[in-house]
Amino acid sequence: MTARRSLPDWMREVRRAVAWHRRLVAAALIAAAIAFGLASLAPPAPPGADVLVAAHDLTGGTLLRAADLRVRTIAIAAVPDGVLTPRSSPQGRLLAVPVRAGEVLTDVRLVDRAALRGYGPGLVATPVRIADPGVAPLLRPGDIVDVLAADGGAPSAATVPGASVVAAGVHVVAVPQQSTSALDAGSSAAGGLVVLATTAETARALTAAAASAPLAVTIEGR
Question: Do residues 147 and 170 make contact, with C-beta atoms less than 8 angstroms apart?
Answer without folding.
Answer: yes
